[in-house]
Amino acid sequence: MVVKWSDAPDERLSVGGTALEYACWGPAPHKAPTLVLLHEGLGSVAQWKGLPQALAAVTGFGVFAYSRAGYGTSDPVSLPRPPDYMTREAEDVLGAVLDAAGIENAILLGHSDGATIATIYAGSVSDMRVRGMILIAPHFFTEAAGLAAIRAAGVAYANGDLKQKLSKYHAHVDVAFQGWHDVWTSPDFADWNVADAIDHLRIPVLAIQGRDDPYGTLAQIFEIVERIYSPVETLILDGCGHAPHLEMQAETLDGIAEFCARLDRLEKVEVSLD
C-alpha cells in the first residue's frame, strides 16, 4: 500500500506533482472493498462530516476520501477552470489517485460534481478495480433551475456569510468557490452535457436524489435509468435537498448498506464452468 491508512495522516497524497489531502477509515484495501468518496463542487474531506465513519460501520468496507486540487487543504489550481474540468478530473487524475491509494476493489461514491466525475471515469476508463457506483445528486447536463441556484450562491458568497462558512474548510476559499461558480455560470457551459458516459457503464449503480434538490431535478436520475445497460437502483427521498447523505443520513445509509451488501454477495459467488 502506498499511502498511510489513517483518518488523520501526517502526509498528503502526491499525484502528478500535486499534493492532495486525504483520509481513510475502516479496513485497508487488501482486507476489504473500498468506498472511494468523491466530493461535490464546493466539498472537501472535512465536509463529509461523520459519513465516512458511518459508512465503514454499516458496510464493513474501507472508506477513502480525498480533496481534489483547489479544495480543502489540497494544492490550489489555476483559474478559470475549463468547461471540461470534470472530464479532465476523471480521465487524468482519478485513476492515479486510486493507484497511489493502493485501491484494489472500489465502489465509487460521488456527490454532485463527484458523482459526475465517477460516471465519466467508469464510462470512459477500463478499470476492473471499480465494481460499482453510488451516485448522489449527479448531474449530466445543465438545467435552468440549477444554474439559477448557482447564481444565487454567487450572491450569497459576495454579500452574505457563505464565504466565511466555506473558509473553515478550504485553505484557498476563493479558488474553491470561483472555480466552481464561474465555470457553471459561463456562457460556454450552457450546453454542457456528458450523459453519453452513462451509455458505457457496465457496473451496478445506486442513484440517490432528494426530490427538493435546488441544483438538479429528477431528470438527472431518469437519464441514468433510460440509458444504462447495467443494473440500476434508485432511492428518491421526499423532503430532501442536495445532500441526502447529510440531510437524511439514516435513510441514505440504509440504501447504501443494502446496495453494498448485495454487490459484495455477487462478487463472492463462485461461477461454475461445468
Account of the protein in words:
The chain is an alpha/beta fold. Helix content is 38%, strand content 16%. The protein contains nine helices and nine strands. It has helices at residues 51-59, 85-101, 113-124, 144-159, 162-167, 173-184, 219-227, 244-247, 249-268, and strands spanning 13-15, 18-20, 22-25, 34-38, 62-66, 106-111, 130-136, 205-210, 232-237. The strands form two sheets. A seven-stranded mixed β-sheet has the order 3-5-4-6-7-8-9, sandwiched between helices. It has a two-stranded antiparallel ribbon with strand order 1-2. A hairpin with a 2-residue loop joins strand 1 and strand 2 (18-20). Helix 1 (51-59) crosses helix 9. The radius of gyration is 18 Å and the shape is globular. The N and C termini lie far apart (37 Å). The mean pLDDT is 96.
What is the succession of H and E elements? EEEEHEHEHEHHHEHEHH
Discrete helix count: 9
Characterize the overall form: globular
- Using only CA atoms, what is the Rg? 18 Å
